[in-house]
Amino acid sequence: MEDSFDLQRWSADCLTRVERALERWVTADAPADLEHGAPAELVEAMRYAVLDGGKRLRPLLVLAACEAVLGNTAAGLRAACATELIHAYSLVHDDMPCMDDDVLRRGKPTVHVKFGEATALLAGDALQALAFELLTPDDASVPAGMQAHLCRLLARAAGSAGMAGGQAIDLASVGKPLTERQLRDMHELKTGALLQGSVMMGAACGATSPGAWAALAAYGAAVGLAFQVVDDILDVTADSATLGKTAGKDALHDKPTYVSVLGLEPSRSRARELLDIALAALDDSGLPPARTSVLRALADMVVNRVN
Amino acid sequence: MEDSFDLQRWSADCLTRVERALERWVTADAPADLEHGAPAELVEAMRYAVLDGGKRLRPLLVLAACEAVLGNTAAGLRAACATELIHAYSLVHDDMPCMDDDVLRRGKPTVHVKFGEATALLAGDALQALAFELLTPDDASVPAGMQAHLCRLLARAAGSAGMAGGQAIDLASVGKPLTERQLRDMHELKTGALLQGSVMMGAACGATSPGAWAALAAYGAAVGLAFQVVDDILDVTADSATLGKTAGKDALHDKPTYVSVLGLEPSRSRARELLDIALAALDDSGLPPARTSVLRALADMVVNRVN
Known about the structure:
- By secondary structure, chain A is mainly alpha-helical.
- Chain A is built from 15 helices and two strands.
- Chain A has a single domain, classed as Farnesyl Diphosphate Synthase.
C-alpha cells in the first residue's frame, strides 16, 4: 500500500530527528548561563525513561500537524519532544507501586525497579519540568507568542483537566461498572487529552484558520479516543510479546474497558467509526489534501495497529 | 521596628491576594472552552495541599521583586501563585513514603495520608502542570513574551538542574559526609533555585537593566541559601510546635546540614553574611532604595525568623 510505505519513510525520518533531539536535550550539561547541571543519577533515570523507544505517537502527531499547517519546524521539533517527555513521565509515575505497580515496560525493568522509587518519582517530576523548558528556548528560533501558546496547550493537556485528571478517574473506577459515556470521559482525559494536545501543538506551530483549528481539534479528539479503544481491544486479543507489555492487564486489575463495556465486535466498529470521523474532519479542514496525507495515514495506523 | 511593621502590613495584603487567587485557580471548574473539568477528588487533594497556609515566602519574593521593577501586577500575581504551586507539589511528593515518609505537615495529615499515595502522586503532578497553566493565560493580561519568559524561569528552577535535581542530591547524600561546598551546591538546587527563581520571575514581570537583573539574581541566590542555613539552624534549636513540623528531623535521618558540617555558631555567622550579601546586591542594583525596601525586609525576615 503506497500510503503506509510513505508513512513508514516519513515516520523513520521524524523519529530520527526526535531521537537525536531527545538525546541532546535530556542531559546533565548545564546551560552556559547556569552554574549547575543536573545530578548524574537523576538524569540517567530520565534518559532511561525517555530514550528507550516506544511508538512516539505523540511526536508524530505533532510533526504531522505542524507540516499540515506549514509550521515553524524548530517549534515543531521542540513540541514533539515535549509531548514525549510528558508521556514518558506519566509512564514512570504510572508504573510505581502506589499506582499500577508494574515491573516491566517495553521489555525492560521499569524506572523504579532499576533506580528506586524515590529517583523514579523525581525523574518523572523533572521530565515534566523539562517539557516546559524545551518549549521556551531563550533564543529567536521560536517566537515568544508561539512559546506561550505551546505551554498553555501542554499544561492543559497534562494537568487535572487532562491526563492527570484522567488517571485519577481511572484509579477511582477500578472494579466499578461504568457506562460507555463515563468510560469515554475517562479516556478523553487520560490518553485523549495529550494525543489531541499533540495535534493542537503541531497546529500552533503555524497559522491556522478557525475552521482548520476546529477540524484539527476534532481529528485529534477522534484519534485520541480511537487509540484507547484499540488499546482495550489489543489488551484482550494480542499476546504480551507482540504488545511489548503485559497483555490482559485490564481484566486482571478489574479495570473497565471498551471491550468489557461494549464487547469486542462493537469496540471494533467503534474504532472504525472514530477513524471515519477523524478523516471526515480533515476533509472539512480546508487544508489542502496533500498536506493532510500524513495525518490521514497516522489515523489509519492508530486504528489498524497490532501493538 | 518600623521596617517589620511595614512588612507585616505589606505581607498581609499580598497574602490575601495570593490566597484569593489560589482559591479561584485551584478548582475543578472547566474553563469555558473545555468540555471537561477536573475530577473532584483530585482537585480536593490539590486544594488541600495548597490552601493550608504556609509561609508563602516564594509568592512574597515574586511580588516584592515585581514591585521593585514596577512590573505587570497581573503577571506578578500569576507568577506568585505558580511558584507556590511548584513548592506545594514538591512537599506532597517529598512527604510520600518512598521519599521522607512524613505523616504531618503544618500540623495536618500529609496528602498521601489523607487521600492515599496514588492520589497524592497525581495531585503533585497536576499541581506542577497547573503552575505553567497559570503562567499562560489566554488573554491580553500578560504579554506573550512575558508568559514565555516566566515559563522558562520556572521550568529551570523546578527541574533537574534546580529543585528536583537538588532533591536527588539530597537523597543520595543521606549518611554521607559532605564538604561545605557540596552542601551548598545541594541547597542551591534544592531550595535555592526556586527561591531565586521567584525573585527572577518577579523581575521578569517588568523591564530591568542588565545591572538590576544581575543584582536581583545575586540577592535571590543569597536569600535562597540563607533560608536553608536558617532552616538547618532551626531544625536543632526550635521545637516542633514552633516549627509546625517535626524538629530534629535532619539528625534523625542522618542528613548533612549546615549545623552538622559547620557547627551552630559558624552557621549563624554564615546566615548573617548572606544577609549582608543580599542587602549589598540591592545597594548595587541601581534600583531606587524606596522600591527595594520590601526585598530588604524580606531578606531580614528570612534570616531572623523563628520558624
